């Protein structure tokens, strides 16, 4: 199966090609100049696709559904308080009936950026706007996001933290009503320092049965990068493991620039690892 998804007519450079090769779904950007569409999420087995276009006005998220082998645009999402330059759609994650969208350029009276929760019920509806309790304008809150089907959301402040404060990632949780969201924890590394890029990448894993686990990348920690595992127990969230690159790692490898986690397996990418170590995986 092969199909192509295109954005709106006024953005002809925005498109991806989807196909199965050897049983694996591949997503290939159709143009090196697709500057408008910078984030995307696909829910397998493939019934929903969301694409972020943060440079389009205040930012837009397009929702596609698969019908007869073709991806058709279903919805165009914008937040309820959209303003030009918000960069809504700069990051997004889709899990079950939850979609979390970062707006890393959005300032609330010059206080902070934000993230938004959408739920799938007769289409996608905005359910909540997430704000951390201590971020400032310029922290880039919302530049990376993660969500679990259970109703946990992880939002980071990325690499640009105002006034050289240590960067952090924030956990939000859905309440028992199913519609309210509140900040549950602020995650920081035990050895974080300014400009270590803690929070440059985030991922979460968990379900109604398994306790949630988060992984946070810091691609300039100790110059080569690191990644941190956080676990949630009855006492709250705590750091469990710090991962470092092994082998002939060098400054600038960007270990922790990409992270993923599922169950008891975590994957950490090193964007600029040159692969000179035969045992290295980048």
UniProtKB/TrEMBL annotation:
Task: Give yes or no: UniProt keyword Transmembrane helix.
Answer: no
Alphabetically ordered keywords of this record: Signal
Checking Pfam families in the record gives: FG-GAP_2
Q: Report the domain of life of the source organism.
A: Eukaryota
Organism of provenance: Symbiodinium microadriaticum (Dinoflagellate)
List the protein's name.
Uncharacterized protein
Query: Do you know which SUPFAM superfamilies this protein is assigned to?
Result: Galactose oxidase, central domain
- Indicate the secretion signal residues: none
InterPro entries according to UniProt? FG-GAP, Gal_Oxase/kelch_b-propeller, Integrin_alpha_N
């Amino acid at each position: 199966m092969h199909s192509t998804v295109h954005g709106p007519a006024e953005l002809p450079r925005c498109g991806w090609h989807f196909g199965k090769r050897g049983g694996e779904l591949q997503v290939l950007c159709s143009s090196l100049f697709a500057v408008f569409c910078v984030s995307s999420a696909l829910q397998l087995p493939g019934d929903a696709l969301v694409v972020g276009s943060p440079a389009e006005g205040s930012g837009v998220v397009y929702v596609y559904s698969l019908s007869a082998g073709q991806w058709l645009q279903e919805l165009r999402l914008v937040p309820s308080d959209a303003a030009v330059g918000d960069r809504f759609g700069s990051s997004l994650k889709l899990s079950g009936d939850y979609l979390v969208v970062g707006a890393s350029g959005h300032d609330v009276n010059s206080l902070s950026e934000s993230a938004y929760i959408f739920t799938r019920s007769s289409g996608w509806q905005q359910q909540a706007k997430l704000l951390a309790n201590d971020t400032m304008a310029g922290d880039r809150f919302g530049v990376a996001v993660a969500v679990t089907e259970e109703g946990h959301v992880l939002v980071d402040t990325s690499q640009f933290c105002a006034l050289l404060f240590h960067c952090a990632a924030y956990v939000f949780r859905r309440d028992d009503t199913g519609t309210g969201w509140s900040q549950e924890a602020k995650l920081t590394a035990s050895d974080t320092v300014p400009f270590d890029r803690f929070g440059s990448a985030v991922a979460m894993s968990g379900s109604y049965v398994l306790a949630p686990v988060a992984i946070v990348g810091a691609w300039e920690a100790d110059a080569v990068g690191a990644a941190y595992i956080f676990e949630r127990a009855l006492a709250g969230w705590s750091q469990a493991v710090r991962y470092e690159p092994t082998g002939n790692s060098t400054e600038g490898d960007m270990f922790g620039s990409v992270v993923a986690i599922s169950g008891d397996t975590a994957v950490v990418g090193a964007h600029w690892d040159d692969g000179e170590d035969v045992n290295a995986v980048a």
